[in-house]
Automatic annotation (TrEMBL):
This is TetR family transcriptional regulator. Residues 212-229 have a biased composition (Pro residues). Keywords: DNA-binding, Transcription, Transcription regulation. Gene3D superfamilies: Homeodomain-like (1.10.10.60), Tetracycline Repressor, domain 2 (1.10.357.10). One of its GO terms (molecular function) is DNA-binding transcription factor activity. It comes from Streptomyces sedi. Residues 194-229 are annotated as: Disordered. Residues 40-59 bind DNA.
Length: 229
């Protein structure tokens, strides 16, 4: 049989993803059972049958390994927003993308990880660092959808921060209270609700009609004033 570089590369990539996930799951399982401070990188590596050096090829810390598992769905958020139909209002696009890529499954493992992060300051700090990266990427996607420039306009960065903050707040509320709605329903309501208030450049706010004298934007204060005559 002939050599097939593409197929071999695909298999190698799948093996790397499987190893990465196995390390994350082991880190979470051990931290939940023993407490994070009692778990060593060597323990995590041994649980998966690899060396500590292999662990370090995937993660810089046990905190990163745990957060990586819980945030796995969120990493696809930006691509999901970008792939929504262009005619879809921004906040509907963000809500649909978030429901697809941020919502938890029903596994106890996912909930255990989310609660462990919430209750462990070092894990929460690692999560905040990861969310900062997501915010930056999401701001670029929002800018492309709305025709704004993140180097000049406030809107894309603000909208990205609001969206990520809403996702985090909805998750914390869902975990900590007796919320009767499913997390996808809660997330959709929260994102569309904040979107109603923040609006979208170039699109009238809900119930608002643009006039010839006013640019059709629900958020004129988020764009710099015109310069020149």
């Amino acid at each position: 049989m002939g050599h097939h570089p593409g197929g071999e590369l695909g298999l190698r990539g799948r093996k790397k993803l499987a190893t990465r996930r196995a390390l994350s799951e082991a880190a979470l399982r051990l931290a939940a059972a023993r407490g994070l401070e009692s778990v060593l990188v060597e323990d995590i590596a041994a649980a998966v049958g690899v060396s500590p050096r292999t662990f370090n090829n995937y993660f810089s810390s046990k905190q990163e390994a745990i957060v990586s598992l819980v945030l796995a769905r969120a990493t696809g958020l930006c691509d999901a927003v970008a792939s929504q139909p262009p005619e879809l209002p921004l906040w509907d696009a963000i809500a649909e993308a978030a429901i697809q890529h941020v919502r938890p499954d029903d596994s106890e493992q996912w909930k255990m990880g989310a609660r462990l992060i919430r209750d462990t300051p070092s894990l929460e700090a690692e999560q905040l660092k990861a969310y900062a990266g997501i915010e930056s990427s999401l701001a670029e996607v929002i800018a492309a959808r709305t025709g704004t420039d993140p180097r000049v306009d406030l809107f894309p960065g603000l909208a990205a921060s609001v969206a990520v903050g809403a996702i985090r707040a909805a998750l914390r509320h869902w975990l900590d209270t007796e919320e009767t709605r499913s997390y996808p329903d809660l997330l959709s309501a929260v994102l569309r609700g904040v979107g109603t208030g923040l609006g979208e450049p170039g699109r009238p706010g809900r119930g608002e009609r643009p006039t010839p004298a006013t640019p059709p934007s629900a958020t004129p204060w988020l764009r710099p004033p015109p310069t020149g005559p």
